[in-house]
Each structure stands twice: as structure tokens, then as C-alpha cells.
Write a structure and sequence with these properties.
- The protein is mainly beta.
- It is built from 17 helices and 51 strands.
- The protein has a 22-stranded antiparallel beta barrel. A five-stranded mixed β-sheet has the order 1-6-7-4-5. A five-stranded antiparallel β-sheet has the order 16-15-14-21-20, covered by helices on one side.
- The longest helix has 17 residues.
Length: 994
């Protein structure tokens, strides 16, 4: 068992270093570590690549404004290195935050910094890691964003497995500045083929209003942001205070406002309109309500089109304010502080709830049933006190969409001091505290127990139709629910059945850091072939993380029907103590074939309170043989310790899988034979297992206190060139390879199902628990059927590819146009070679590069994004700084995503296997190339205007059907966190300086 001895030594070492180094002698202070290098890199793509050993992409404030974004997530996600994550286009499965996912390895493996210091957790939850929320970042205050991809744990600490996103903020502003922007979406409906399908469906539908086409031309999703920044220098010039206040408001967009999402598409040889088996009118056993009677249910046509009421873009309202201050209190000490606050509210809406298909009792003398209906349900028991028991389903179209109202209030405080201990040595010491208070409400959900009460209805002594629970006194508040005739649902019944629920919590992070750095060259520690000496930095850090999530009784007990599971509490924390050191070693300078040759080393030791300790390290070097050419290479060992949710989450039934391979398997087929054997069923029982039309199945997830940290190895090789024959041109090429071992993730319900049924691994079959219907989604009074899917150290993640970047600037006089202004061009591109996941230790790896679909989402989605993974992504911008008045500049940007194939068309064993293929509609998501245009001009030297249109050609997103559209990342028949899904984006903005 561990003692506190090591932790005490780690803290003491920081104080000893400070006292010892104060006495050391003189030489110019050395910029000591990679945090500093990131801070001082250039402001435009790809300037940082020209000076950094590790590949870094920088996005300047001008590029942020050129993109027209008010949400920082949109800018980050436009980079080729970033994959889809939580964001504004997710409704089902949203938590109200925006996260960043570098290299497709998951938000929990991407570290977010503000000015080189951690941004704390953004959302306390019982089911997902509390990673940084990009909504916290005020876009108008961002001076630059540096994106360093590849492992960086030795420098920045745990979680920097895929890389680091470092937001450099304005901290020395003087004056007053107003930033304002208004934006909107506009779309012209032009999917004629889909419109024909929808019209045909409306003509045969029980409720044609479900399939109403939107207006030919729509404008919606308006957004506005206003930020006021003001700063002042101290009278003696030794300090500055920069403060800001910001307001952002964005309106919702419904899927019903786009012709390609107004209908939930079925996969097949051709698209058809489909939906959920929980429909309206109600399903009762094998019947569907028709007027005042029953008719035989048609599983193909008796479905509900749940698409139109879902949000394509969530509404959002955010208030933010803060201040950055620094003051040189002495020659050796500069005090600094940062205070930041955010209050953000966002609402997610999905289709109406109701009674989701499950077994319920209905009394055979139910007063709402006609005599004919009683006979159809109960046969000889019609009119008696006996009960019919069977599947009941009813969509609550009368109550409207289910909403989750999220609110996050976040605070961040930094207090520190830095300066020079001597001419040789410098220091930086700070304390940081970040906290997020979270609250959420869920409305328009039915409480499952009340459903059963409301379905048992009889006449009381006064002849009134009431619940049996009112008659016997077990639930005097019950109001009977008449689903047996169309149009007879009362508001009183809805008031009884619809029960709001509330969740909330707190997530916090405390950091204490002390770093010293110096130049050992003053003591003769340097290479004989170099002018500069060895630079070092070392120090210690303490970090404490805490998550407290709680919910009301309704949510904790999982009493809401169709909510996807319970919300059990979690209240845990851990402490971390670290020692770290770095060295930069110039080997040769200004020598033949070695204008510069240097090495960088880094090491970090981490001691976690819940058990493990870890070692991370870096070895990197760059060689500039001649002017204009630099070669660079690095190897880095990074770690990610399990987070609080992965360690301590209590078992919970949630929607986890997208398939039941036994459901409906034909008698005589291999699957039917296998399922009958392992689940002890007859072939007829297997064939009778009902599939879920919505492709949603239950799993039982849980944390695991025995988890060990993930380990990753990153290798990168590249070069940077500035050819002398092309002044103004520079470009870089970098190959990266990142492999994560002991990958922390659930195995995945779909993987477990496939291992059991198709691959014949009996040990996985015991994890599949079927209910009395032999189902894993049709369960009486709750999700009893499920797949056990606990978080484990499973296999591995592996990604590799090549980044390309280029930048060219020139005056047009070089081509003979004197006075023609200048042009600037930039390119950022990534080729994805591999995105492999090994679900099981020692098992085969599955490569999802260039693929999309439910299988890859199941493999990658638990800890990553699960969205499409195009092999090629490009972003090219050309800007003409014209000679015309008002500093007019015109800019065009092209964004490209290569096509992706359906995962089941791959012959890899974990995907299509020996029988690759899939529905024709889903075989491929076509490539998309978007054109963006921008004009900027300045009036009176202080009013800078910008006017832009993104997706000028109003291209529709690529579409696929429901069989390969897992809820969450796939929304509205497409993947809106990847593709432009709302049409043209128009914006106008103003930056005014006073």
C-alpha cells in the first residue's frame, strides 16, 4: 500500500529547486520548454511549422474571423487533423458541450490549454468523461490557436495522447474594441428525388402531416455575438489589464426544414421513408388502432417519422466575461492573474416520447375498449377482470418533442508569478482552479410505472372511467390513458404521465505548478560545435480532479420511458503528483551541412492517488543542413490515466448497440442455428425475435476500478522547406504514427454480439442477457434485456498518415502588375493511412480509415467520434489584398472531404468479413467540396467590416439510411458534425477600435 512519502518529496522538490537556483550566477535567461515554444510561434498557417520540432498548426485571429464562426468548435473542426466530436449539431446524445477530437482518437485524448495551462473539465456526468468545453473560449479574445498533434504528455502531462490545442489569448490590449457578428443559414430545397419519395409516402400515410415538405426556400438558424474588449496599461508601463464581456445567441434549426431530413430514410436498394415502431396511432399486441377499432399491424408501414422534430442545430445562449492582468512588481517578479466566467444554456430536442414498445397489462374489461376490441385482445376473457399482456407502443404526438435543457456555469482562476532568478535562471509558479456547475432538465418523457397504471381503466361507482389504482387507492393521482381510439388522449392524462426529471453536478480541477528554467551554457555545458548552450527546465506539479454528479429520484432510478437509461450518481476524486524535466541540446550550429542540429529531451514522472504511477518521455531532433531546409523527427511516449467516470461509474442500462444478429434470423440459416444453440431457443423462437426498427438496443455499462493507464507511442518524421528560388513560399510534410495500447473502452455491444453469433466465441454469449421476449430491447417495465459492456483495458488504437502544409505570399508586381496588391495562399491537408481499433487484446485490428457506418461507430464511438473517416481532407485559402480603397481584401476558401465507403463493404473480419456488402443506398458517402467567399474592408481606419458566405453553392450533405445511421453522431440522415448540413452560411461582422 502506498504512503505519502513520494508525494511529499515531489512537493518539497519544487521548493528546494527554487532556493538553490536563486544563488546561481549569470547568463541570459533561456526560453525553457515546449509550452514557451508554442506560445512564441507565428500567427498564420503554417508559420509555426517552420520553427517547431513538433508539427504545429496555428490559426490566427484573422483566420477565425475569415471563417465567420462564433463557435470555436467550428473553426477547430474545419482543420484536417480534427474529427467530429460533441457539438451544436448533436441532439440525441448531446450533453450541451463542444469538444475537440484530434486524429480521431477521442476528446479524452486531446488536451486543451489556455496560454499553456490546462482548461479544466466542462461537463460532470455519470457516463462520459468531463473533458474541456470549447464554449468556454470567447472567440473574439483569441489571438491565436496552436494545434500540436501527436503525443505531448512529457511536456504537458496526461491526456495529451493525440495532441494539444493551445488557445493564446489577448493579454496586452490597450483601448476599447467592439466585435459584433450576425449570421444565418439559407437553403434552397433541390433534392427532387427525395421530395418525390416523401410525397408518395404522404399519400399513403395514416398521418400525412408527418411527411410535409418544407418551403422551397428557407432561412433559419440565426446567430449573433457581441464582444466588448477593453484594456489599459499601467501608468509606469509595467503592467496591463485586459477585460472582456461577451454575449452569444444562436437559434434552433429543425430537421423538418430541410428536404433531405424531413423523412427518416430507410436503407435498401433505394431510399424509402421509414421510422420507429413506436408510432401513433397506438400498437396493441398485433394490432394497430384505426379510428375506434383495431386492424392488423403492418410492421413496415406502421412506423413514426421521428425526423422532423429533431434539432439539426441546437439553440444556444451564452454569457461570458473575464480579465487578464499582469504587473511587474520587481525586477525579478511579474505577478499575473486570469479570471474567466461562462454561463451557457443549450437545448436538445428529439422526437416525442410516449410508450416505447414493451410488454404491459391491459384489463380485458377496460372501459375504453369497445366490445369488439375486447374480443380481439382477450378472446374468451373479453369483459372479464383478466389481463391481456403483450407489446404496447404509442408515440406521444400530443405532448410534443422531448427536450433536454442544459446549463453550464464555468469559472477559471489563475494566479501566478514569474521572473528571472538571475541572468541564467528563470521561474514560473502558478495556481489554477477551474469549476463547472451543471444542471439539466428533461421534459415530455413518460414515467414507466405510471404507464402501467394508466392502462388499467374501469368505471367507478359513479360511472366515471378512472384508473384501477384510483379505485384501490394505490395511486389516487392516476388519470387513465385512452390510446384505443384515435384523438382521445386528454391533457389530464398527459399531465399525469409526463414527469420532468432533473440532473446536476460539479466538476473541478486544481493545479499547482512550479517550473524553473535556465541556460547551462554559462557553465560550459555545451557542444564544442555549437554557440548556444544546453537549455533545461524542470519542476513539479500537483493536480486534483473531482466530479460530483447527482440526479432526482426519477432519473436516478431510470423511471423515464425512452430516456435511454438511468442517471446514477457519482462523487469521486483523485490526486496527482508529478516531477518533470526537459532539455534542449544544440549539437552543431553554422557548420558545413549543419547550419543547425539540435536535440530535445523530456521526461515526466506521475504518481496517481488511485494506484498507478507512470513515466512519459520524449526524444526529438531537427537538422537544418542548409538554409531553407529543415528535417525533424521525434519519438514520444504518452499516457492517459483512466478518468473518474471510467473508474467509478455504477452499472447502468443505456442504449448501447445498433443490432441484434439473432432478430428474425431465418430458420435453417447459420445465424438461426447458432442463436438457438447458445441461447437455448427453438429455431422458431429465434425467427420470432423482433428487431427494433430504430436500431437501438440496450447495454449495461459500468466503470472499472482496476483499470490501468493507457500508453501511447508517437513517431513523427518530416521536413520544412523554404526554397530560395521561390521567395515567399514555404511548405512542410510530416508523417505521423500514433499507437495507443491498453485502450480504455467498453468492448461494444455490437462487437460482443458479433463475437458470439458470427465468430462463435462462446465466452461472449454469456454477456448477452435476453428478456422474456428473447429480446434486448422489448422489456417489461424497463430495459431488462441487455448486453453487459463494462469498461476495460481492451486492445489498441492506431492511426497513421501524412500532414501537408504550404504557404505562399507575394506582391503582384513580381508578375508585372505594379500596384496590383498582394496575394497570400495557404494549404492544410491530411492523408489518413490508418485508423485501426483492436477491440480485444490479441485480436485482429479493424481499419476504419476511408470508411463510415454503424460497425465503425461501434468500434470507435465509445471513446472517440465514430463518424466518417475520409482518407483525404484539404483546406485551401487564397486572399487578394487589393489596391482598392478601404484596404479591400477578397478571399476564397475550398474545403474538401474525400468519399468514404460503408464499413460492411470491407472484407476485414471485424466488418464485412467473408460476405462484404450492404444496402445500395448506403454503399458510399460521396466526396464533398465546399466553396467559401469573404470580403473585408476598413472604414476610417478603425471600422473593419467582413462579409462572407460559406458553402456558396448550397451543397447538400451526403446521405445514408437508418441501418447505418447510429443516433448521436448521425443526425438527420447525415453526419452534421462533419459535413455542411444546413445549406449556405451567411455572415456579416464588424470590428471597431476606439
Amino acid at each position: 500500500m502506498k504512503t505519502n512519502t513520494m508525494r511529499e518529496r515531489l512537493l518539497a522538490s519544487s521548493m528546494i529547486c527554487g532556493v538553490a537556483l536563486a544563488a546561481l550566477a549569470a547568463s541570459p535567461a533561456f526560453a525553457q520548454d515546449e509550452v514557451q515554444e508554442v506560445v512564441v510561434t507565428g500567427t498564420r498557417i503554417p508559420t509555426p511549422n517552420l520553427t517547431s520540432v513538433s508539427p504545429v498548426t496555428a490559426i490566427g485571429a484573422a483566420e477565425l474571423k475569415a471563417q465567420g464562426v462564433t463557435r470555436v468548435e467550428d473553426m477547430i473542426n474545419s482543420l484536417p487533423q480534427a474529427f467530429a466530436a460533441q457539438g451544436s449539431s448533436i441532439s440525441n446524445g448531446s450533453n450541451g458541450t463542444a469538444t475537440v477530437n484530434l486524429r480521431g482518437l477521442g476528446p479524452s485524448r486531446t488536451l486543451v490549454l489556455i496560454d499553456g495551462r490546462r482548461l479544466g473539465p466542462g461537463n460532470p456526468s455519470q457516463s462520459t468523461a468531463a473533458v474541456a468545453d470549447l464554449n468556454f473560449i470567447p472567440s473574439a479574445l483569441v489571438e491565436r490557436v496552436d494545434v500540436l498533434t501527436g503525443g505531448a504528455s512529457a511536456v504537458y502531462g496526461a491526456d495529451a495522447v493525440a495532441g494539444v490545442v493551445n488557445f493564446i489569448m489577448k493579454k496586452d490590449f490597450e483601448g476599447v474594441q467592439l466585435n459584433a457578428q450576425w449570421s444565418t443559414y439559407q437553403h434552397s430545397q433541390h433534392s427532387d428525388g427525395l421530395q418525390s419519395i416523401i410525397k408518395a409516402k404522404a399519400a399513403t400515410a395514416n398521418d400525412p402531416s408527418q411527411f410535409a415538405l418544407p418551403k422551397d426556400n428557407v432561412r433559419d438558424g440565426d446567430g449573433a455575438e457581441v464582444t466588448l474588449t477593453f484594456g489599459v496599461n499601467s501608468a509606469d508601463g509595467k503592467g496591463n489589464i485586459t477585460a472582456y464581456a461577451s454575449y452569444r445567441q444562436i437559434n434552433a434549426v429543425l430537421q423538418g426544414n430541410r428536404d433531405y431530413s424531413v423523412c427518416t430514410l430507410n436503407s435498401g436498394n433505394a431510399f424509402t421513408c421509414g421510422g420507429s415502431g413506436t408510432a401513433s396511432p397506438a400498437r396493441v399486441g398485433g394490432f394497430t388502432v384505426a379510428g375506434n377499432t383495431f386492424r392488423a399491424r403492418n410492421a413496415t408501414t406502421d412506423v413514426y417519422n421521428f425526423g422532423p422534430t429533431n434539432y439539426y442545430q441546437r439553440p444556444d445562449e451564452r454569457y461570458a466575461l473575464g480579465a487578464f492582468a499582469h504587473y511587474q512588481v520587481a525586477d525579478w517578479a511579474e505577478a499575473y492573474a486570469q479570471v474567466m466566467f461562462m454561463d451557457d444554456r443549450s437545448v436538445a430536442q428529439i422526437a416525442p416520447g410516449g410508450i416505447f414498445a414493451a410488454n404491459f397489462n391491459i384489463n380485458c374489461d377496460n372501459a375504453f375498449l369497445t366490445a369488439t376490441q375486447q374480443g380481439q385482445l382477450c378472446g374468451a376473457n373479453a369483459g372479464t377482470a383478466n389481463n391481456f399482456r403483450g407489446v404496447v407502443a404509442k408515440r406521444n404526438v400530443e405532448g410534443g418533442g422531448r427536450q433536454s435543457d442544459f446549463r453550464h456555469q464555468s469559472y477559471r482562476y489563475v494566479v501566478g508569478m514569474k521572473g528571472d532568478l538571475s541572468e541564467n535562471w528563470n521561474y514560473d509558479a502558478y495556481m489554477e482552479y477551474t469549476a463547472t456547475q451543471f444542471s439539466a432538465s428533461q421534459t415530455a418523457y413518460f414515467q414507466t410505472a405510471r404507464i402501467q397504471n394508466a392502462l388499467i381503466a374501469r368505471r367507478n361507482a359513479a360511472g366515471q372511467i378512472v384508473c384501477q389504482s384510483v379505485i384501490d387507492g394505490t395511486d389516487p393521482a392516476c388519470v387513465p390513458y385512452n390510446i384505443f381510439q384515435e384523438g382521445q388522449v386528454t391533457q389530464a392524462a398527459l399531465n399525469y404521465l409526463q414527469v420532468p426529471s432533473y440532473t446536476g453536478g460539479d466538476a473541478s480541477e486544481r493545479v499547482v505548478n512550479f517550473t524553473v528554467g535556465g541556460n547551462l551554457g554559462a557553465y560550459g555545458v555545451k557542444s564544442p560545435w555549437a554557440e548556444d548552450g544546453v537549455g533545461v527546465a524542470f519542476g513539479s506539479e500537483y493536480r486534483r480532479e473531482h466530479v460530483d454528479f447527482h440526479a432526482d429520484f426519477v432519473a436516478t432510478a431510470g423511471l423515464l420511458n425512452g430516456a435511454g437509461g438511468a442517471a446514477p450518481p457519482i462523487n469521486k476524486s483523485f490526486d496527482l503528483y508529478e516531477l518533470f524535466g526537459e532539455a534542449r541540446i544544440p549539437i552543431a550550429q553554422d557548420m558545413p551541412f549543419a547550419k543547425s542540429l539540435q536535440m530535445e529531451l523530456a521526461y515526466r514522472y506521475s504518481d496517481y492517488s488511485f494506484g498507478p504511477n507512470t513515466n512519459t518521455y520524449k526524444v526529438a531532433g531537427d537538422w537544418e543542413p542548409v538554409d531553407g531546409l529543415r528535417l525533424r523527427a521525434s519519438y514520444q511516449r504518452a499516457v492517459r490515466a483512466p478518468n473518474i467516470v471510467e473508474l467509478y461509474a455504477t452499472p447502468n442500462h443505456v442504449l448501447d448497440g445498433s443490432t441484434d444478429l439473432c432478430a428474425g434470423a431465418a430458420i435453417g440459416s447459420a445465424r438461426n442455428t447458432r442463436c438457438a444453440a447458445v441461447f437455448k431457443l427453438t429455431p422458431a423462437q429465434v425467427a420470432a425475435i423482433e428487431p427494433n426498427p430504430a436500431n437501438q438496443y440496450y447495454g449495461q455499462t459500468a466503470g472499472n476500478a482496476n483499470l490501468q493507464p493507457e500508453k501511447s507511442d508517437t513517431v513523427s518524421l518530416g521536413f520544412v522547406a523554404r526554397p530560395t528560388f521561390a521567395p515567399g513560399l514555404n511548405f512542410s510534410v510530416d508523417w505521423f504514427d500514433i499507437k495507443v495500447e491498453d485502450y480504455i473502452s467498453p468492448i461494444g455491444a455490437d462487437t460482443i454480439m458479433k463475437q458470439c453469433v458470427d465468430n462463435g466465441v462462446d465466452s461472449f454469449c454469456s454477456l448477452i442477457q435476453r428478456d422474456s421476449n428473447n429480446s434486448i430491447w422489448l422489456s417489461p417495465n424497463g430495459p431488462l434485456g441487455h448486453v453487459i459492456d463494462q469498461t476495460k483495458n481492451t486492445g489498441s488504437l492506431h492511426t497513421a498518415g501524412i500532414d501537408f502544409a504550404a504557404n505562399y505570399r507575394t506582391d503582384l508586381s513580381v508578375i508585372g502588375w505594379d500596384g496590383g496588391g498582394s496575394v497570400a495562399m495557404s494549404l492544410a491537408s491530411t492523408w489518413l493511412d490508418k485508423l485501426e481499433v483492436q477491440s480485444l487484446p490479441g485480436g485482429a485490428s479493424t481499419d476504419c480509415a476511408g470508411l463510415y457506418g454503424a460497425l465503425c461507430t461501434a468500434l470507435l464511438g465509445a471513446g472517440t467520434s465514430g463518424g466518417p473517416s475520409p482518407e483525404w481532407r484539404h483546406k485551401f485559402r487564397a486572399t487578394w489584398n487589393t489596391p482598392f480603397p478601404m484596404d479591400l481584401a477578397l478571399s476564397a476558401q475550398v474545403r474538401h472531404f474525400s468519399s468514404v465507403d460503408l464499413d460492411s463493404t470491407s472484407s476485414q473480419p471485424g466488418l464485412g468479413g467473408a460476405a462484404p456488402g450492404g444496402p445500395t443506398t448506403d454503399l458510399k458517402l460521396g466526396a464533398r467540396t465546399y466553396l467559401d467567399l469573404l470580403a473585408t474592408w476598413t472604414v476610417a481606419d478603425r471600422y473593419n467590416f467582413r462579409l462572407g458566405v460559406n458553402n456558396v453553392l448550397d451543397k447538400d450533405p451526403p446521405l445514408n439510411g437508418a441501418a447505418n445511421c447510429p443516433s448521436g453522431p448521425c443526425n438527420g440522415n447525415t453526419w452534421p458534425q462533419v459535413y455542411d448540413s444546413l445549406g449556405r452560411y451567411l455572415f456579416i461582422g464588424l470590428t471597431a477600435d476606439f
